[in-house]
Amino acid sequence: MKFSKFYPVFFSVLLGVALFSGTLFAQAKKPLLMEGKRTLYQKIITHPGAVYRDTPTAEPKGAILPFTVLYVYDRQEANGRFWLQCATGTNGEGLTWIREDRVSEWKQSLVLVFAEKTGRAPLLFFKKKADLLNLAKSTGVAAALDTLTKSFKDYALTAQSPPIDFPVVAMEPENDQGAIPSDRFYLMPIFNYDEELEETMLLDVATIDPGNPDRVVRNLPQGGASGAGNAGNAGQQPPPAPKVGIAFVIDTTISMGPYIEICRQLARDIYQKLIDGGNAENIYLAFVAFRSSVKASPDIEYTTKIISDFKNANDRASFESALGEVKEAASSTHSFNEDSMAGLAAAVEQLDWTPFDGGIILLLTDAGPLNSSDEYRTVPDNPNSIKAKAAAKKIRIVPIHLKTPQGTNNHRQAQQAYEAMAYDVAGARTYVDIKIQDPTLGPEVYRSATQGLVNNLETSLRAMNVPVTAADINDAPAASADPVQKASDIGTLLGYSIRLDYLGNKNETTPPRVIRSWITDKDLANLIAERSRDVRTVQVAVLLTRNQLGALSASLRSIIQGAENARLSNDSSLDFFDYVISAAAEIARDPGEFSLNPGAKKLGESGVLSEFLDGLPYKSKVMNLTERDWDTMDAVAQSEFIEDLKSKVDLYEKYNADVNNWGKFNEANSSEWLYRVPLTDLP
To answer: Which has the closest alpha carbon to 44: 104, 87, 95?
Structure first.
């Protein structure tokens, strides 16, 4: 899908689903609704210099923290100006008046977050769209960006104000400061966009960092305070290398016997290299085995098994002893596919990742994951939900897929699943496929690939005093057809990626602070002909309140229940729609929240899902589902539909518990806390 579809100028989605809009607060004043909406409220973002008043004609009472997000309750004209009555919450408390020209109207709940930093230059923020557009269309883009970056840094470091015509107002922190921590809540709202360029979008954005109440916001750099992020580390000793956990998640069915033995040898080799290199305490190994359903095939002994939690080289004896007990299954499983999703879920959720600055899962299998229609599947997860759960714990998944002659008919389906869960870095995915023509040579190819990956990872992690440069990344494209070379490249890139995250957390790196500016959603230097790599600078998320996330989860549960009931019915499509609409009415505190429409042609038209989903500019298979669609689905497709929704409900529960990543503009009302849900995680 073209990235531009995510950015309508008048995107009719705002925050503030009002689940409590029934009789309990009937007398309270409520914010103004978006035009044509029944539950979505108008919101604004304040500019630096905004002040508040008791009435439009009263004297100012004080300044408002820049970039405060407020609900709009009323609009009036007074003294030749327009004024807005606003408050931080939706219960009508703390109302105040602000000049309309001191705020920006926020007509969307789409926000951006900085993408993986490895493989691209720090993102520049331009004052004017025309300046950015002209640069993007010019020759020598990479050199021009380098010149602007150097000039901006010089102005910031010397506390000089740049010339009035200098086009750049801010810059993402440099590599020596690391990446902005994933658990730092900041907002990058989108106000406008331009589609003139074919390969990248131009986006009109602000950056909001509510985590720092003492921040000073300026349009131009003043000694690095506003636009350049944190000060550099010149003259400082580099920090120690980060601690990293590497979990082998291995298929231990009958066909995998030779690879289990190779894993034992790999562990010995890796530990010895760490000891020889003086890095014995920074890299830890764990081992998780998986097979398939014990219910379907009791003789296989287990579905998943934690063979060993994380051990470093100082405890190598216990790790190697645990691996010595691992054997391939004595009997066959019920399907060529195995329950790799269960193995991954066990590694993500049962291993202790908390001591580490970054984690890597090396998945090894010669089969695809069990289909969602398989009755013996043990977890609801799919590749996207596994990837999201891993990302929340800073875990990067590297699937190593053995393509054997026996699995020829399975290769395409397996590759699609494993590529979907692989980590994205420097415009490539960390999926490695090893084509096995001679079964006797396969284990040695795997050994060389994995050894190269871990060796390069360890080397990159240890070189904390050596900055990550564009040349480093260009030398490690992770695109080689040779699996050994590709795995080695991936190890280098993952080392850089973990280093940047580690430095960002150590330095408490913050985003730049910008009122309005223009950026590109892809790295321009990587789009030039000699590189031609699609490296994103930002990713799209949807900003939801805690109430909205709860309403979304409840709606999905009702759809799941309706779908499962419909599968047991003789008149499946009609029962499905009727049940879902009825269930939605029951879960709503105010039945009027849903425009229940039994004659709806699409599920989205029935009013089951909240309005913030109804207006999203992407194709939702849930919202666009028709009775005919459901009725014509075969059993496999219906099962996949249900299982996908179950995995999303499970994911939302984890988001709800992820307290560190909730933005708390209104501390007193947890229902209005905000979470950035990746667009791909919506139904």
So the answer is: 104
Q: Is 380 helix (H, G, I), strand (E, B) or coil?
A: coil
Helix ranges (DSSP H) in 65-128? none
Handedness of CA 250, 487, 410, 361 (dihedral sign): positive
Q: Which three-class secondary structure string do you get for 170-234?
A: EECCCHHHCCCCCCCCCECEEEEEECCCCCCCEEEEEEECCCCCCCCCCCCCCCCCCCCCCCCCC
Q: What is the CA radius of gyration of the chain?
A: 27
Report d(CA 88, CA 329) in Å as an integer.
60
Residues 6+ apart with CB under 8 A from 432: 398, 399, 400, 401, 449, 483, 486, 487, 490
- Separation CA 13–CA 42 (nearest Å): 9
- SS3 per residue for 135-150: HHHCCCHHHHHHHHHH
CB atoms inside a 10 Å sphere around CB 218: 16
SS3 392: helix
Beta-sheet pairing, 168-171 with 124-126 = antiparallel
Place 218 in a pLDDT band, splitting at 50, 70 and 90.
very low
Predicted confidence at residue 571, as pLDDT, reads 56
Do the beta carbons of residue 518 and residue 128 sit within 8 Å?
Answer: yes
Burial letters for 656-680: b for 16+ Cβ neighbours within 10 Å, e otherwise? eeeeeebbebbeebebbbbbbbbee
Sign for the CA dihedral angle at 147, 150, 151, 152 comes to positive
pLDDT digits (tens, 9 = 90+) for 462-497: 765 555 555 555 555 666 788 999 999 999 899 989
| Contact call for residues 514 and 227 (beta carbons, < 8 A) | yes
The winner for highest mean pLDDT among 24-28, 137-141, 464-468 is 137-141
Q: What is the pLDDT of residue 678?
A: 85
What span, in angstroms and rounded, lies between the C-alpha atoms of 511 and 226? 9
Q: What is the mean pLDDT of residues 424-438?
A: 89
Asked if residue 287 lies in contact with residue 311, where contact means CB atoms within 8 angstroms, the answer is no
Which residue, among 82, 94, 77, 81, has the nearest Cα to 31 in the 3D structure?
A: 94
